[in-house]
Each structure stands twice: as structure tokens, then as C-alpha cells.
Amino acid sequence: MKHSVKVLALLLTASLGFGLLSGCGGGSSPSPAPSSAPAESSAPSDTQPTTGGKLVIYSPATEGQVNAVIPLFEEKTGIKVEVITGGTGELLARVDAEGDSPYADVIFGGGESSYTEYKHIFQDYVSPEDKNVIEEFRNTLGFCTNYCLDSAIFIVNTDLVGDIEINGYMDLLNPELKGKIAIPDPTASSSAMMHIETLLTDFGGLTLENEEGWDVVRQLVANLDGKLASGSSAAWKSVADGEMVVALSYEEAGIILARDGAPVKVIYPEEGTVFTGSTIGVVKNCKNLDNAKLFVDFVLSQEVQNIFCNDLDVRPVRDDVSYPDYFRPATDVKTVYLDQAYVNAHKQEITDKYMDAYMDVYPG
Question: What is the CA radius of gyration of the chain?
């Protein structure tokens, strides 16, 4: 397929002054937005060819997702797409800085907690395809649509692990694993913070007051022996390359490594893992509103959802797709409920609490 996507690297000037997080929202405080029940679109559920036009997408999604979805959307609709890539925080901050005349029409990628920080830059849109989404992950906020899922997993090097049992978070406290656990800084990595939130949920509940859970966090931090990976990819690469025994990572990375023949296995923590959504949203006051809505519909379509799980090793939000044999069904994975609303309301406080826990172990 001939790709006509124009992908531009996003460079923000230092004058924005945001402390950016990998995969997380920036530090701007959004003005409060009134809560209203989202109205469902009356657009047809099947994507229909259009007369063309333009669509501008800001995307922190993976290169694989962008390359699989955007050219196909152009082919199906005749709409010319411009894609600007970057981190979730910097892209959201850019739209915020653009004010009432945004350049972007859609944000493709990121997570609900980041979108909630910037909910004033989005407008409500519930796709007619949303009714086909797994009920737990349907659009209840209006401005934020889940389009694929991820989960907290361990990636274990089968050549190095030997007789060490790694089935859950408590196993990571084994002294034999000290300094052999790969995880990026949770204050700068959404996948690492997903593990902290999962661990707290597993041990006493996702609250700031859960001292049982925070004590386990401190013990895990101590067993890292002061080592933090430079990023999410550096963490799983260190395991695939035989430098570390286990990485706290995300499902997509583990499945891809295993399929590519790396000496690894994917472990879902026996205490329970969580499924969290990657999100898409329509920018308020965007110039190509109808095309933006059509893109959301397209990403939720059965065709694209099948591409996610069969071509990209990404867990879809629809269950009426054809899963490949190697993809472990969600019903076979022990899961726990992540209180996403609590995360949205206390994101910075959770980050600060983690930093306190880290400083308790490494006060210098």
C-alpha cells in the first residue's frame, strides 16, 4: 500500500516550560469543564467514502499503529491526513497552547488520566461504534474514547531465570533478583506507573493511605538496587539482550518479543493484572470536525480492531474479533479492577507518594 501520510517530528520550544512525562500528560492545570452527558452521534456505523478533505492528527501512538491505521483510512475515505507525532504530554500541551484555533483535529493515542488533565481541549463525541466496545471500556466521559487495551506484565528471560520462581509481585522481592529487575522511572513512564497502580490495587487498594501496598512498593524499590531503565523500551530490551532477568513492562512488548524469538516468556502477575485503555479524542473547535468523528468511528470499526490484534499484537476493545492462537484471551487472565477515576483525580499525588517511597529507600 502506498503511504501518503506525512509524519512530522514534533519539537516544542523550551518556552512552553512543561516537565514532560513519557506517555503521560504535561504539567498544565486545566480550567474546570462542566460535566454533561455525552450525546451519541447519529452517524452511520459503517465508514462510508467521503468527498475527501483534510484531517490533522497529533499522535503519541506507536509507529506500528500509525502506519497500519492512517494509510488505510486515507484509502477508504479519500481524506488526506497529516500526522504530527510526539509524546502524549507535549502534544496535549501543544493543543492547549494553540487556544481557540487548534491545528489538530484529533489526538490519537495516550491515556484517560492524561486526557482528563486536559479535558478542556476536547469536545464530547461518542461514536456509534462505541456500542460494540466491551462494556467496561465504553465511552462514559464523552471526550475520551478507548480504542485498544494494555496490561501490566512481566517479561522474563528464560535463559537467565534458572530456578527462580517469578509468578507475581511478591516474587520480585526475592533477594536473588536484587539488581536484576528492569523498570523505568514511574514518574516518567506510563507503563511503569501502571505497575505501581496495579501493585497497590493487588495489595490493599489503590489509595494514598494504603500503607500495606506502599510498603510493598518500597520493598520492590529496594530490590532494584538503585537501577532504573532509561525508558520502557530500554527495560524490555535489557531482558531480551540478557542483561536483566525480568522487566516490568506491558503486554504488547512482551508478545512481540516472544513472537520474534527472543528468549523470553510473558507472565501475568498471579495477584492480578489490570487492563487499561489507549484513547482517542476530538479536539474542541477543530477545523475538520466531520472527518475527525469519522476517524474515531474508523478506529473502532471491526476491520481496524482485527488489525490491532492480528497484525500489531495489540489487545482490541471489541470482543467480536478473530484472535490469533498465541494471544491469551482476557478470560484466561486474572484481572483486578483499576479505579481509573481515582487515578484521574489523584495522578500527581500518586506520583508524589511514589517519590516519597523512593526517597525512603534512597534518601541521598
Answer: 20
pTM as predicted: 0.72
pLDDT tens digits, 103-112 = 999 999 988 8
DSSP string, 311-323: HS--EES-SSS--
76 and 176 co-located in one domain: no
Q: Is 26 helix (H, G, I), strand (E, B) or coil?
A: coil
Neighbours of 99 (CB within 10 A): 9
Query: CA 22 to CA 108: how far, in whole Å?
Result: 15
Is the same domain home to 104 and 155?
no
Q: Which residue has the cell 482517542?
A: 280
Asked if 190 and 22 touch (Cβ cutoff 8 Å), the reply is yes
Contact 222/159 with Cβ under 8 angstroms? no
Sign of the C-alpha dihedral computed for residues 205, 341, 271 and 154 taken in this order: negative
Backbone φ, ψ for residue 316 (5° rounding): -80, 170
- What's phi and psi for 160, nearest 5 deg? -100, -25
| Integer Cα distance of 296 and 301 in angstroms | 9
* 269-311 confidence digits (pLDDT tens): 999 999 989 999 999 999 999 999 999 999 999 999 999 999 9
**What angle in degrees, to the nearest 10, is found between the helix axes of 63-77 and 289-300?**
120
82 & 225 share domain: no
Same domain, 89 and 159: no
Report for 11-20, 98-107, 186-195: range of highest mean pLDDT: 98-107
